[in-house]
Amino acid sequence: MDSIQKYILQKIAERKREGNFRSLKLIEGKVDLTSNDYLGIARDKDFQVMVDAEIQRNQKLLGSTGSRLLSGNSAYAEALEKQIATFHSSEAALIFNSGFDANYGLLSTLPYKGDTIIYDELVHASIHDGIKASRADRVSFRHNDVADLKAKLATAKGLIYVVTETLFSMDGDTPPLREIADLCMDFGAGLIVDEAHATGVIGEKGAGLVNHLGLESHCLARIHTFSKALGAHGAVVLCSAELRDFLINYCRPFIFSTALPFHSLAAVSCVYQYFPKLDDRRRQLAHLISVFKTSISNDPNLHILPSDSPIQSVIIKGNEDIKRVAALLQDAGFDARPILSPTVAKGTERIRIGLHSFNTEEEIVRLADAIHIFVQAKLQSV
Question: Among the ranges 57-71, 235-249, 321-335, which has the highest mean pLDDT value?
Answer without folding.
Answer: 235-249
